[in-house]
């Protein structure tokens, strides 16, 4: 077994507690052990980051670009090996995991170019003999706290811009996926990034996450809305930069005029693949009356053919739920949906496979209402509910009637409705004849309402969070 140590000031350091990393496809398989850092070690990591900052943020842009390019190259060349590790500890299929590692490689490659595309402005002053320049400085030490569902891609889209724009990083991954985080940290440590600029600390949010938040200059977080709100509150009390992505309850509208096969594919892919463990998953399927019955039965038929099995097994389409706690949450919401009176067209069942694991087949509710708990709260599993709508206008109203606002989709062949939806959807991401899940790495990502707080992630928009604008007046 591999021991996943902490990376502090360029050294691999054992923590104070060892916690097993369990394979959700085979709970008898212990992949390794995560070495949890102490509060003192977190403070050491922050101090190391702060000490390393001057050399990194005033060094040549070529150094930073070359380091990020090296990270990208190694991720890409090892994508199958790292994808297998990712699938083994998180539970997504091998193909999905390899694709995620490739995405992380592309993110680092993109930001290796952004290092060289940093722009400033020179403006004429309203006063004679004065020049005005507008530039951007790095924020400082960035705390990065990431979830388990994309354990390489989400860290990549936070760490890459942080390093690209001259910041130092203290990174805390999810307790459920320490192996992927350790592998990424190992690659970064050998890329040419100076010791101390990037640090990895394992542990719980209550201990390690809190210690990070107490000492950094900015915090970027992806995870639950409860934790996100606590982080935002603490960060604003300290008056530091904060960015939080906190999930969604994403709608997919299917209109009578939709291309039927495309609509079914969008619903099945967006709702159930990757075990529904995506913040962009479409857990509310809002379907107009003319297509409703045919549509729900087609989706049900497709769900009956989905192969849920070991993440590394050939032919597996949906892997296990990530751990017992998440599985219990999924089952609890299925029971809630039944108690609320939603009709169970396809009921998720615990599946027995050759290896002991958290295998749950998909659940599809019909005849649900938007006020039911299963349609108000994020479940984060292979569970979706169909809501019947009279027409497009009612469907749009239902789609927007949620405390969340991350991703929203519509299946239609009507340009009028597509355009209206794009303009009036209260979500940060809109999809036309596409699953609500599925993103490009070079464009902004983020939502509205309770889904997101702070500047957008990814692409050129990442500059807004990871830098501070400076206006300089020069007497000439």
Highlighted features:
476 residues, alpha/beta, Aldehyde Dehydrogenase, Chain A, domain 1, Aldehyde Dehydrogenase, Chain A, domain 2, seven-stranded mixed sheet, six-stranded mixed sheet, 14 helices, 39% helix, globular
Describe this structure in words.
- The model has no long low-confidence stretch (mean pLDDT 97).
- Helix 1 (39-57) runs parallel beside helix 7 (205-215) and helix 3 packs across helix 4 (94-114).
- This protein is globular.
- The strands form 6 sheets. Strands 15-16-17-14-13-19-20 form a 7-stranded mixed sheet, sandwiched between helices.
- It has 2 domains: 2-246 and 451-475, Aldehyde Dehydrogenase, Chain A, domain 1 (3-Layer(aba) Sandwich); 251-432, 3-Layer(aba) Sandwich (Aldehyde Dehydrogenase, Chain A, domain 2), CATH 3.40.309.10.
- The longest helix is centred in the N-terminal third of the chain and has 21 residues, at 94-114.
- The protein is built from 14 helices and 23 strands.
- It has 476 residues and is of the alpha/beta class.
Based on the structure given, which CATH architecture of the largest domain is correct? 3-Layer(aba) Sandwich
* Global Rg: 23 Å
Strand order of the largest sheet: 15-16-17-14-13-19-20
Going by CATH, what is the homologous superfamily of the largest domain?
Answer: Aldehyde Dehydrogenase, Chain A, domain 1
Shape: globular
Can you count the beta strands? Answer: 23
- Helix count equals 14
Average pLDDT: 97
Assembly category: single chain
Distance between the termini: 64 Å
Q: Which class of secondary structure composition applies to the elements?
A: alpha/beta
- What name is given to the CATH topology of the largest domain? Aldehyde Dehydrogenase, Chain A, domain 1
State which percent range the strand residues make up: 15-25%
Which residue ranges are poorly predicted, with pLDDT under 50 across at least 5 consecutive positions?
Answer: none
* Biggest pleated sheet: 7 strands, mixed
How many structural units, i.e. domains? 2
